[in-house]
User: Which sequence fits this backbone?
């Protein structure tokens, strides 16, 4: 799987993504403190990344991994969230991992541990097959 392939996006979303980066939720700030350290599992994440016609909270192109933080606004749009996950998975082989604001703010150690496990598992999923010499 080519983790660095280009994924098209609606250019009109760039302005909204920038606005979202400037006004993160408390849970997004907390996760970004972890993900922004390049040494975190040796992968790079970007914030508020437009992909297709969606803005994802955090995206790692190397692993084709999206991390979504579900806050109050997500409770009113479960169909939209599922559509985004389905489109990204089916069209681009992107895995979407979701955490709730509540879990991040109240159980950050558990979220951290799960995130490490998700990244390690994803590495194994996308590892190229061994070819005989």
Assistant:
């Amino acid at each position: 799987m080519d983790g660095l392939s280009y994924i098209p996006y609606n250019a009109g979303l760039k302005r909204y993504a920038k606005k979202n980066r400037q006004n993160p939720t408390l849970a997004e700030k907390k996760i970004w403190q972890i993900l922004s350290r390049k040494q975190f599992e040796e992968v790079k994440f970007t914030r508020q990344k437009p992909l297709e016609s969606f803005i994802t909270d955090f995206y790692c192109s190397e692993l084709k991994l999206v991390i979504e933080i579900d806050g109050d606004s997500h409770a009113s749009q479960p169909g939209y969230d599922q559509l985004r996950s389905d489109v990204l998975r089916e069209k681009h082989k992107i895995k979407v991992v979701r955490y709730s604001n509540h879990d991040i703010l109240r159980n950050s150690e558990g979220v951290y541990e799960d995130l490490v496990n998700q990244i390690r598992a994803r590495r194994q999923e996308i590892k190229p097959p061994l070819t005989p010499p």
Remarks:
- The longest helix spans residues 108-126.
- The radius of gyration is 15 Å.
- The chain has a mean pLDDT of 88.
